[in-house]
Amino acid sequence: QFSDTGSRKEHVKITSESKPGFLERLSETSGGMLMGLVTFLLSFYLLFTNEGRALRTAKSLDEGLSLVIPLDSIHSVSQQNEGRLVHLAGTLSTSKPLFDPSYGLSIQAVKLKRNVEMYQWVEYEDSKEYEENGEIKKETKYSYNTEWKSEVVNSRNFDREIGHKNPSAMAVESFTAVSPNVQVGSFVLSKGLVDKIDDFKQLSLSNLEDPHADVTRGGDYFYHSENPRRPEVGDLRVSFFYAGLSGDDPHLGSADKVTVIARQQGDQLVPYHTKSGDVLQILYSGELSVEEVFQKEHESNTMKTWALRAAGWLAMFVGISLMTRIFYTLVDWFPVVRDLVNIGLKAFAFCVASSLSLLTISIGWLFYRPLWALLIGLLSVVPIVVAKSRVPPKKQQ
């Protein structure tokens, strides 16, 4: 079946295969059990190491807060602060502007990104399975649409390449230019600090002329197209983004201000190694006090810790579910029993994953905060106790 709805095209493919037998399903389940075991073991590693990382980071931040020295001036380098952790805030500056000669564009900034997109065919796939006449049938609807994409879409992998063929490469490449020398006052930022300047904003092209006869400016894009309003597959459009404005610009405003905490090494700002084993080199946009910077770092550490805890618990839940899937396979020909077993297995996986996750977290805290470790260890038995209390007691004989 084939239909053409404007620029979007669709077709449907139906494939069928015989319903797998009991031994085949059992074999697939055995493979899933092995994957579940690996996922289950990895969850312990993730949860345990995450607690050590979180506590180590928190201790490093507390150490940094107790040692950091706010600089009185950013325009002079004091030898008294050599090797010490310092705090400073000021405007970004670079030695020379960044250029893209191909499009006659320059800007005084820390980074300049050229983003190239090509008009291409994109395949979308929507599948559903159903059982019919003892066979499992899979109905897949393939739809094709033309869109601007930053990466080359390989049309050879399409279900139907005829009529949806894309070029194999772009005539113009994307790139990001970075200033070789970035300063705040008299201090030069390390590569690690420069990497943190990544708040990209799109550059307006309204004040620029068309760079070539075959390039047309439309809004904030340069088009390699005969008709930008009706692009064809293979046409290109180019946009530009900048981060860390390092000079006053009549159209973009004044230079960006940043706050930095790092180790002073001559006129360089480099990573500071804490006693806990972490590295401190912090950069935020705007002017922030020492307390505000470390508060943001603690909040970031907390968010990362909880995100990894959730990922560890989910990995454990999935691992247990896969390892216990064999019980579902053994009764999958009895619909009512199958549904009850499925609910029971999920409840079991939820309770065990919750308990083991809390227990692993408590072990991770054991050498750092024993009292908290004991409390979390006690909480780890709560899900099992609650689950056990839901089971009705055996009748008296």
UniProtKB/TrEMBL annotation:
This is TMM43 protein. GO terms for biological process: lipid metabolic process; nuclear membrane organization. Belongs to the TMEM43 family. It is found in: Endomembrane system; Endoplasmic reticulum membrane; Nucleus envelope. Keywords: Endoplasmic reticulum, Membrane, Nucleus, Transmembrane, Transmembrane helix. It is a multi-pass membrane protein. It comes from the Eukaryota. The gene is Tmem43. Its main location: membrane. Pfam families: TMEM43 (PF07787). GO terms for cellular component: endoplasmic reticulum membrane; nuclear inner membrane. The chain crosses the membrane at residues 30-48, 306-327, 347-367, 372-391.
